[in-house]
Fold this protein.
Amino acid sequence: MANSMKHKNIVVLAHPDWINGYETNTKKIVHEFTKQNRVLYVQAPINRFNSIFQKNNPAIKNRLSVLNKEIDPLIKLKDNLWMLYPTYKEEALNLAINNWTFNFINRINSRRFAEEILKATKELGFDDFVIFNDRNPILGLHLKELLKPEKYIYYISQCEFTDQFQSQVLTRHEPKMLRKADIVVTNSLYYKEYASSINENTYFIGQGNDINIDDTIESNSFDLRNTFNNNLPIIGCIADYSTSNLDLKLFEEILIERPKWNLVLMHSLAELPTAVQQLEKYGNFSIVPLESTKQKNAYLQQLDVCIIPEIANTFAKEKYPEKLDEYLALGKATVSTKTIANDIFSEHVYMASSSEEFIVKIEHALAEDNHRLMEERKEFASLHNWQNTVQEIYNSIEGKSNIENMVA
């Protein structure tokens, strides 16, 4: 491990509440940080509007409890990890009537935020520290000059901004943040290309996965063959969260062109769109609901080829292709829509850019699959763990990247 990041103090500027918030890449990165370093996980301050209109939100309740002095703002979560709740209400930026007003309000917020961080770092004995900013270009914009950290690292991974104001703010202000950062790290080649056009000290660090191979061991009670009355190849796809990005036209073309292939869509969704359900008019298509991880992995083991037929839109280009890691960890032959984000998988995954190419690549996958390829896929997926991801962050501080040498 790089000496520059052993026994350091790291201040992490994060979005979700550690206790009540959703799981994120940054939380997993922080767990790795704490193995060698001390970490202060800083929550964003409560917004004045949110303190009124979202006061029943558990994360907001925690912040209100701090403001009411019912709980301490600085909480030790485990060895080497503390969480800080700011003790003030943030001024609402969406009230800004122009850029000058926006910048004025943001500077006020940033100064207050910096004071809270400095108070906490002094209490913890953090004489020097590194800042790790989880894609907050607004609140983090002035922290470099206000806090004077040893290094300022800005991390970009995919995040969806449903609020139009947030999306516009990100587009307008993130380039300023990128120029200020000492180092930019990204989990996607798409974001590396974007950020490196602004800051040459940009590094692709990949992403870990949380796949437990032991979960694949299951009884024969989950027999996917029972879904079909034949011994034809089974080509499968999983929809975990949504079907909105699936290329249903591509699905249909495969079903029509290859009637002697069984095509199965496995999902854990409460409801499927009508357009997906209508594909069941084809006799070689089946929808299979999933009730557990063990069931899913048992079914995956029975697939001849896994497919990821996505619409090649901005979302697909930006996101790290976690599903590829899941399939490869099981050694499965996989065909995916080609995007810049999954270029790093090109040695182990068949890539396609059209329905015709998809069909050809599936045929190749069926014909070429063997034990050696299965083991190579498993080995490749095993490299994508959080320990290696964090090592790449450490490497970036040294101005080097092992992973980029592998995918260049």
About this structure: The domain at 213-382 is CATH 3.40.50.2000 (Rossmann fold). The chain has two domains: 3-204, 213-382. The first strand starts at residue 9 and ends at 13. The chain has 16 helices and 16 strands.
